[in-house]
Amino acid sequence: MTLLAKKTVQSEKQWAEIFSALVSELQLSGNQVSVVLGRDFYQTFDIEKPKVDESELLTTLPFSIKDLISESIFDQVVDYIDVPFQPRKGEQVTAICLPRTRVLMIRDMILAAGCHLQSITIEEVALTHLLGVHEEANILLSQQQNELVLTVVKQGQLYFTHRLRGFNELLPLPLEQVEDALVDGLSLEIQRALDYISSQLRVNTIGALYLAVVCPDIKLLSEKLGVYLARNVLPYAEDEGYDFLSLIAYGALMGEEQ
């Protein structure tokens, strides 16, 4: 069973109050909680992987990005995800950085509400769970605020992410009114991404492209993109609707014991 509850907040200072109210209202005290942070609440940097033992990597990583951020590295929490190997770039990682005070605030608000903190993750990582673990690469085109995000996942690993602007205002309109701009534009951007992951990441086998967007003609849009791209294009979780918040929340919790 999937439960979706929403509350609007004006600032980060309201998180604890709103979260506590939701836990009380929905009788969720005692549950495990996974937190997915939106893109505005952390920074990421693609950097060369420090040449140290794996056991020392987390200790070394903050000093590899200290010149890339304006805040003191000692006030930040830094983690990383591996980046698929590219011969021209060598071994790389994506460093993830967020204020230590934000991490502690999240921990404290969950404990204060009588819940248990399972994990804190970010959008990019949560999205990988939506596509599962498969030998071939799968692609998710999801709608977020004023942009679309194209995510490529293979064997459960994030291979590539790319943000597209200029399409969200077209998606709610009848496809017959915006077909040239929407279908042609999306096809071009997606094909560029496919060319990149083929040439640079050596990803040539694509399972499916899933659309998680709000569009009145989602089936027709999927069919037309499929024809243009000669790929299998499908609406994602059509029966569940296309609320991106619920998709992200579901992705973060998939595979965890409740």
Give an overview in words:
This protein is an alpha/beta fold. The strands form 3 sheets. A 5-stranded mixed β-sheet has the order 8-7-6-9-10, with helices on both faces. The relative contact order is 0.14. The N and C termini lie close together (11 Å). The chain has 2 domains: 11-125, Nucleotidyltransferase, domain 5, CATH 3.30.420.380; 131-253, Nucleotidyltransferase, domain 5 (2-Layer Sandwich). It contains 7 helices and 10 strands. The longest helix is centred in the last third of the chain and has 25 residues, at 175-199.
How are the SSEs ordered, and which strands pair?
Layout (H helix, E strand, L loop, with lengths): L14 H12 L5 E6 L5 E6 L5 H11 L11 E7 L9 E8 H13 L3 E7 H8 L6 E8 L2 E8 L2 E9 L9 H25 L6 E7 L5 H12 L3 E3 L8 H10 L5
Parallel strand pairs: 1-5, 6-9, 9-10
Antiparallel strand pairs: 2-4, 3-4, 6-7, 7-8
Helix pairs in contact: 1-3, 4-7, 5-6
